[in-house]
C-alpha cells in the first residue's frame, strides 16, 4: 500500500504508520546521530535522481557558450553537496547519476573556478558582467519559493559576477 497523504512522513514512520520513508534534510542530523534509535534503521542507498538548472540557449545571455560555462564554473558543487545538502548528495559531473545505465565515471565536467568563470564572462560577447542582460530564474515545484540550494547558487552567482538573479 502506498500512502500519498500530507504530513511528515518521518513522523508517520516514527509512529509506526509507515514501514519505510526517505529521510529529509530536516531530519538527517538526528538520524545520523549514533545515539538515536533511528540510526540503526537507516539504510543509505544510491538514488537515481539529479537536479539541474536548464539554460535557454536561444536567449541572452545564455546564447553564448562562454557565459554558460562561466555560470557552471561559478557554482561550488562540492560545498552545495557537503554543506547545504548535508552530504546527502554528491556533486554531478554530468546528467546521469552513478549506477544509471550510460553513466560515465570518467566524465570530468567543469570544476568550480570563480576566477576563470569571470574571465569567461569577460571573453564572451558581453565583455563584462555589468553588460549581461537581466537573468530570471524560474523554479518548478516547492510552491514557487527558492529552497536552500537555489538560494546558495544565486548567492554564488552574485559573488562571482556581481549579478542579481530575479
Q: Main beta sheet, described?
A: none
Shape annotation: elongated
Helix content: 25-40%
Structure annotation, total helices? 6
Oligomer: single chain
Catalogue the unreliable spans.
none
Distance between the termini: 42 Å
Radius of gyration: 19 Å
Order of helices and strands: HHHHHH
Class from helix and strand fractions = mainly alpha
| Strand count | 0
- As a percent range, the share of strand residues is under 5%
pLDDT average, as an integer?
Answer: 90
Give your account of this protein's structure.
The protein is an all-alpha fold and 166 residues long. 31% of the residues lie in helices and 0% in strands. It contains six helices and no strands. The longest helix has 14 residues, at 148-161. The mean pLDDT is 90.
Q: What is the topological layout?
A:
Blueprint: H1 9-14, H2 28-32, H3 65-73, H4 77-84, H5 114-123, H6 148-161
Summary of the model, kept short:
By secondary structure, the protein is mainly alpha-helical. Helix content is 31%, strand content 0%. It is elongated and about 60 Å long.
What are the salient characteristics of this protein?
elongated; 166 residues; mainly alpha; 31% helix
Amino acid at each position: 500500500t502506498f500512502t500519498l497523504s500530507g504530513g511528515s512522513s518521518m513522523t508517520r514512520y516514527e509512529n509506526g504508520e509507515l514501514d519505510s520513508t526517505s529521510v529529509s534534510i530536516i531530519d538527517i542530523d538526528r538520524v545520523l546521530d549514533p545515539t538515536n534509535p533511528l540510526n540503526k534503521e537507516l539504510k543509505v542507498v544510491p538514488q537515481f535522481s539529479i537536479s539541474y538548472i536548464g539554460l535557454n540557449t536561444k536567449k541572452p545571455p545564455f546564447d553564448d557558450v562562454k557565459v554558460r560555462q562561466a555560470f557552471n564554473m561559478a557554482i561550488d558543487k562540492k560545498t552545495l553537496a557537503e554543506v547545504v545538502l548535508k552530504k546527502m548528495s554528491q556533486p554531478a559531473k554530468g546528467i546521469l547519476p552513478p549506477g544509471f545505465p550510460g553513466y560515465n565515471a570518467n566524465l570530468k565536467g567543469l570544476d568550480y573556478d570563480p576566477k576563470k568563470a569571470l574571465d569567461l564572462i569577460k571573453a564572451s560577447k558581453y565583455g563584462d558582467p555589468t553588460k549581461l542582460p537581466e537573468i530570471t530564474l524560474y523554479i518548478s515545484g516547492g510552491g514557487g519559493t527558492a529552497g536552500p540550494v537555489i538560494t546558495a547558487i544565486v548567492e554564488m552567482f552574485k559573488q562571482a559576477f556581481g549579478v542579481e538573479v530575479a
